Amino acid sequence: MRLLVLNGPNLNLLGIRQPEIYGHTSYTDLVNLLNDWSKKHKVSLDVFQSNHEGELVDKIQAAYQKIDGIIINPAAYTHTSIAIRDALAAVAIPFVEVHLSAISQRENYRHISYVQDLAIKTIEGQGLAGYLQALDFIKNYLDDSDDPSPST
Length: 152
Prior knowledge:
Rossmann fold, 5 strands, 152 residues, alpha/beta, lyase
């Protein structure tokens, strides 16, 4: 199983940017947490962060027929990027949307997610643990969809 974790703008500043909202853990700590999960579950994992919308779109497009599932925290692009939405729709790779904070409880403009209706699940407000929940969820989802037993 091959999974891709995509992180949008300013997530590279974890631990520095608004720690009262996003926590004191660094982006390196997040990457280490994700890599530990992938080793434990014997899953191939690629983690990518960019502050540039086009780079995220390129990474999504490059995942086509190579990646089984995506975890994405589009960050600020959640509320603005039709390009990321269109790329996710085009490749049709199952994905889980993750947000460190509870965006539905924050400023009104953060309540809109351009990707939420395409996601198989959205996890918000769980901090870094939300990424682990997303990885567990998508792994189980993909394992279940690979199950050759007939459904009843």
